[in-house]
């Protein structure tokens, strides 16, 4: 009971001290001093300690309180209780965005991701979809070329395009997704060491089968599986074969007659002239050409003093000889004979008898 009363007294003291601190030390100080003295006397009566064996001892902290008036008076000491509050500081980390979003967006500092404004894109909001974005308007006009625009005071290319020839006038002329000489980036060429076609697909070099009409080396190079002779070289074709003197056309879709006088497929093996057969060339009509008319196919011959002239080809694969000559010229003053080159008629010596009372002179019977 005594402890509760003492606590009440101390609480009143504390409130009075707060009042003193908030008011000028004038007439109020005298009144407060009197009250404090009376309360302090009462508190001393309340805080007497009983038998030490029955109650624990209480350790108190005394705080001297001084009030200033016209004279300095030392006030009685009072017991106070101090409460310490601990505070916790939480540190929040942030993630910077690339290039501060190029001044074309806001940064989400929790993720480090740029939130681009309308008309700009890219991880740093540097790609403009409107074709402009430079303070220098002269430069901005200069950059208005095919697949090119101005951003951050320089000419830049649209996505998947590049200025591989380094000429600003034609803009970003190269599509790096499809250009086999600049596949994915400038200068990276797609080169095939086989007969297959090397292509640039989505910015990467790939080897593909060739379509009809493309040149080829073997069937495996073609999507159709057919690599046929053309007038020059070979081409992928939709046909499986052509006639001996036919070749595949340039689109790889039709067989056409090979040019006359050529043998692209080497199928018209030349035969001997005496046969009047194939001469090793095509005739321009899809067939192997025969030796033409007039080509000598056999030598001249003699039979019963008759000369058979050399045979000639008829242009249809046959050797014919339609003319013969009787070597007997009917002149008694010549000696007639037949040789492989023709009839021979030699004059007899002069004065050779050639009939009744007649003699040969200069090949004539006179």
Describe the structure.
Mean pLDDT is 79; it is low at 45-90. This protein has three helices and 30 strands. It folds into five domains: 2-48 and 62-79, no CATH class; 98-175, no CATH class; 209-257, no CATH class; 260-326, no CATH class; 332-366, no CATH class. Strand 13 (197-201) and strand 14 form a beta hairpin. Strands 21-22-25 form a three-stranded antiparallel sheet, with no helix packed on it. The chain has a three-stranded antiparallel sheet with strand order 28-29-30, with no helix packed on it. It has a two-stranded antiparallel ribbon with strand order 1-4. The protein is rod-shaped and about 210 Å long. The chain has 366 residues and is of the alpha+beta class. The protein has helices at 2-22, 27-46, 137-142, and strands at residues 62-63, 66-68, 72-74, 78-79, 105-108, 113-116, 120-121, 127-128, 148-151, 154-157, 161-162, 174-175, 197-201, 204-208, 227-229, 234-236, 246-248, 255-257, 278-282, 288-290, 301-303, 306-308, 312-313, 319-320, 324-326, 334-339, 342-347, 353-355, 358-361, 364-365.
């Amino acid at each position: 009971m005594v402890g509760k009363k003492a606590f009440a007294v101390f609480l009143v003291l504390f409130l009075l001290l707060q009042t003193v601190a908030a008011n000028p030390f004038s007439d109020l100080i005298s009144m407060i001093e009197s009250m404090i003295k009376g309360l302090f006397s009462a508190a001393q009566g309340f805080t007497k300690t009983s038998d030490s064996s029955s109650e624990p001892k209480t350790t108190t902290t005394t705080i001297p309180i001084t009030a200033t008036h016209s004279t300095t008076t030392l006030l009685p000491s009072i017991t106070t209780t101090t409460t310490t509050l601990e505070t916790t500081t939480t540190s929040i980390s942030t993630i910077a965005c690339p290039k501060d979003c190029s001044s074309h967006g806001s940064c989400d500092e929790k993720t480090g991701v740029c939130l681009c404004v309308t008309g700009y894109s890219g991880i740093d909001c540097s790609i403009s979809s409107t074709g402009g974005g430079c303070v220098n308007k002269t430069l901005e006009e200069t950059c208005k070329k095919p697949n090119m625009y101005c951003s951050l005071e320089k000419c830049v290319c649209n996505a998947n395009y590049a200025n591989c020839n380094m000429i600003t006038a034609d803009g970003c002329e190269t599509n790096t997704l499809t250009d086999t000489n600049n596949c994915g980036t400038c200068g990276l060429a797609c080169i095939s060491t086989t007969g297959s076609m090397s292509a640039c697909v989505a910015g990467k070099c790939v080897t593909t089968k060739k379509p009809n009409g493309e040149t080829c080396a073997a069937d495996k190079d073609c999507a159709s599986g057919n690599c046929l002779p053309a007038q020059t070289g070979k081409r992928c074709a939709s046909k499986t074969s052509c006639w001996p003197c036919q070749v595949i056309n340039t689109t790889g879709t039709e067989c056409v007659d090979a040019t006359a006088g050529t043998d692209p497929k080497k199928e018209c093996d030349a035969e001997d002239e005496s046969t009047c057969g194939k001469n090793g060339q095509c005739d321009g009509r899809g067939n192997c050409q025969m030796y033409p008319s007039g080509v000598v196919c056999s030598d001249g011959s003699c039979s019963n003093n008759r000369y058979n002239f050399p045979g000639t080809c008829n242009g249809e694969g046959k050797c014919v000889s339609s003319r013969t000559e009787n070597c007997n010229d009917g002149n008694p003053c010549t000696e007639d004979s037949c040789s492989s080159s023709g009839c021979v008629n030699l004059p007899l010596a002069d004065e050779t008898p050639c009939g009744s009372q007649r003699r040969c002179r200069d090949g004539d019977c006179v």
